[in-house]
Amino acid sequence: MNKYRSHNCAELSEKEINQKVYLSGWLHRKRDHGNLLFIDLRDHYGLTQCVIENKNKFFTILEKSKPETVLKILGKVIKRSDGTENQDLKTGKIEVSIESVEILSSASELPMPVFGEQDYPEEIRLKYRFLDLRRDEMHNNIILRSKVISFIRSEMLKLGFLEFQTPILTSSSPEGARDFLVPSRLNPGKFYALPQAPQQFKQLIMVSGFDKYFQIAPCFRDEDARADRSPGEFYQLDLEMSFVEQEDVFNVVEKLMLSLFKNFSSKKILSEKFPRIPFQEAMKKYGTDKPDLRNPLIIEDITEIFKREDVKFDIFKNLVEKGSVVKAIVTKNTKDKPRSFFDNIDRWAKEQGASGLAYFTFERDKELKGKGPVGKFFGQDSLKEIMKICNSNIGDSIFLACGKPKEIETILSLARDKIAKDLNIINKDQFAFCWIVDYPMYEFDEKSKKIIFSHNPFSMPQGNVKKLNFEKPLDLKAYQYDIVCNGIELSSGAIRNHLPDLMYKLFSIAGYSKKEVDEKFSGMINAFSYGAPPHGGIAPGIDRIVMLLADKENIREVTMFPMNQNAQDLMMQAPSDVTENQLKELNIKKDIKKN
Fold first, then answer.
1. Residue pair 228/515 in contact by the 8 Å Cβ criterion
2. Which of 69, 74, 128, 384 could bond 100 through an S-S bridge, CB–CB 3.0 to 4.6 Å?
3. How far is 201 from 175, CA to CA, in rounded Å?
């Protein structure tokens, strides 16, 4: 191939026996057998076992070489002796008998070993990410990411989309997360913003007369890290289409996701026609708009039960009289579970900040009764009614929570996942996709006591635009949708509002004046006044897709050079200080207040 290698480290087989070859790579592992020294040489493609006798003059060099030293090896391919073949390696039937060795780069003592897949502190892994990425699992995750992106590009082109790039330096947006700001040297005192998403630009592409656009878009948001969210930056498959309705977007995305997930995983897709779940139904049944449909547990509202005479559970009854609700989760056939199982769930709920979860099990001795700490407070008729509402049977158990609706949704959504994991009833060999649809256009913000956009402010409201009742904005629904898989939101999307007058009206309800809309969204609102097509789109997160396909729970496992929880790049020491001259050029002075 070149002066460094005739083959890569995954290429040799019995076909090359007795051939002279030269390989280059990292010293992955070595095993000293006295007269013989075995080394595993590793490159991007795989491993080749090499062997050297102690009478060879290069024996001492290899013996002293530290792991991860970069070597060039010249030798002859020989067949491994019977019983020493490694069926897990492509090169497992041969080895290279070393004739000479050249050290291309020596390695210092490693802060973390590359051989093996042991867990190491995140701080070490991120500081020495170049070593972490040499590890087999991490290396394969990043290769998977590359292949997924290439596959997506190919599929999008087949579907008739064109790839365009939108600007990175743009204007700040009043909606969404915090912007990353970039000072302008040529325009003192003014700032660019890094795009949280190419939202306005991709809509402008549609206004410009292009029909289908996509890009693998970098996005920048100054928000806190989570397991499924990187701080700072991430990538998404950004797409937009002209002259479409909601179902047209769904059809494109479903085709892509089915093709993608079938190609890169052997897991079963629970439903190839992704269920459409209205937002209100999702909140009612799952307590979240990101439900994991592999989980069979459902939340039921049993508030009315606590208005009955034969219910003596006074704590809940008093709260219900003051406006609280009671919701429940039933677990099937858990009568034989030990008390510790139920107490652990109750204790866990308290650790989440809730008041706990009451529980009991449906039993029938001579008569129907509830076994457990609060079961005695329910009469037979109440128990029968609960069983009917919750579709439960004798031997099932019920967990109860009482409080304000949003509080109960939050804790029971978490409890639903926690209980299912403890019962091991989530099928981990499945992908369960769904669409969450019919989002409310607005919501009431308890902090500001104002009506705000609940989702995307650029969305088209549902219904006949000329007959919309703006006097009841909280009743308006929008053509907004999320795609969810296994409890992870992959993306939000919408059919866009392309009508300037309607946009002014919708923004005015959320407290924006016409002047503010013109200032903040001048490019888009101006463009719409010259004829804009109905259009819509979505932007599934690349990082989250790869995380699912790699079967990882943290997005940093599929990101090449991620930041830590504090949005710091420990390897490159970013963010960093800059010189006074740099600040002077930008007309910036630091005024940092000490805590």
1. no
2. 74
3. 15
